[in-house]
Amino acid sequence: GTAASACSRASAWEAALATLTWLQLSSVRPGLVAHNAALAACRVAARWAPALELLARMKRQSLQPSGASYGTALLALTSGGRRSDAAELYREMLRRGIAFED
Fold first, then answer.
1. CA-CA to 60 of 20 to 30 Å: which in 27, 35, 92, 102?
2. pLDDT digit string (tens) for 58-87?
C-alpha cells in the first residue's frame, strides 16, 4: 500500500497501476488500501477510464470496493466530465447498499 500511496500523492496513476500489477505477478494479493491508493492516483489525474477498470478488476478479484473506492471513482468520473457515467456508478453503489465516502 505504501508504494501505491506515494504514487497517489504524485498523481502518477500509471505507476500506481503498474505497482498493483507487479504485486499480483509477484504472488502478492494487494488489498483494499493499495487499490484505493491507485484509484486516488487516477482521480488526481482525472483518469476516469483506468479508475473504472480498476474498480471492475477489484470486483473480479472478489475484493469488495468500499465507499471510499466508489467515492474516489465517482470523483475521477466527474473530474473527467463523465457525469452520466458517475450517475450510473452512484446508482450501482445504492443498489449494493454502499455509503459514499471520499
1. 102
2. 999 999 999 999 999 999 999 999 999 999
